[in-house]
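Could you join me in thinking about how sequence relates to backbone shape in a protein? We need material for that, and I hope you will provide a protein of your own picking. Once you have written the record down, we can walk along the chain together:

…
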Amino acid sequence: MGKKVNLAIVGVGNCASSLLQGIAYYQQEGHRDFAGLMRPEVGGYGVADIQVVAAFDVDRRKVGRPLEEAVFAAPNCTTVFHRDLPQYGVTVQMGPVLDGIADHMKDYPEHQVFQVSDAEPVDLVRELSESGAEVLVCYLPVGSEQAVRTYAEACLEAGVAMVNCVPVFIASESEFAEQFRKRGLPIVGDDIKSQFGATILHRVLVRTLCDRGVRVERTYQLNTGGNTDFLNMLEQSRLRLKRISKSESVQSQLDERLPEDCIHIGPSDFVPWQKDNKVCFLRLECRGFGDVPMNFEARLSVEDSPNSAGVVIDAVRCAKLALDREIAGPLEAVSAFTMKHPPRQMRDTEALVALEKFIAGDGRPVRAQPRFALA
């Protein structure tokens, strides 16, 4: 195709680090088997076609630094599987702080927490417009509702598509969804689903049990980790939408919803030495043939940020594909496959089929208004 995907990144943390490492990794000769990559090509766009043109953060160890250096700065702690990044020609710019940093973080060591830069926030709309960004990936901390909405509004003004990896409801909220639709801009969201993480495992298990006639009566999913995401989520007030997102993702796979007191899903504790490793403890209590009880327990350990990047790399290219095809508003099939709280939940097998049809161009929606069109 010969065209590029111009990407802006909000939040130069562990997830951004894994995404950029992965893009560079899969461009290497000798990695042409593409192990771990779901799709080497999406609608004609390869991994190498993704180029970063803008990046925003609020941490003093990242703001003002070249992007290829900032992604390895503290408090980032994810696995470094490809340190040799290109020179992007992108300097990390200061974004608005708003509700992006939880107050309790001041009580922890500097290398584990965000340290706010004293730089003035930039004009987001101007910077996005001048950079030529086409798609923005939002990696802000859980609970950053004001900040995520601010970046969504900047995307609308600047004419930039959005991939919202955060449990703040933008694509799945009717008012924002309609604004993206009217502006002729696609959006993928909300709350990224890992390539194979706790949510996928939980969804697959409950759906399989239902398909085989087993009644799920109670379940929990308890997660621990040692990155800034888990430290941030010690503040319970920031978890409201996260718990809704994760719980609904599992509830949507059941034939009958569980009572609220019979399902508990969400982050449980911060264990510093785990760093970017996430451990999930999962239990299902069920009744099978003859009403005989059974239960199931599992433990899953994954490196959290690479697990996320394996999905984002497809979501970004799908958003660009929608721009090319002038498809606006929430991308339902893409969101159902890549996100925990999409506008419309599907079974994972159905979402995969719908996604492949979208990429192939089958059954596309009627063209929306042209990009940048006003309401």
Summary: The first helix runs from residue 14 to 25. Residues 364-375 have pLDDT under 50 and may be disordered. The CA atoms of residues 61 and 73 lie 6 Å apart. DSSP finds eleven helices and 13 strands in the chain.
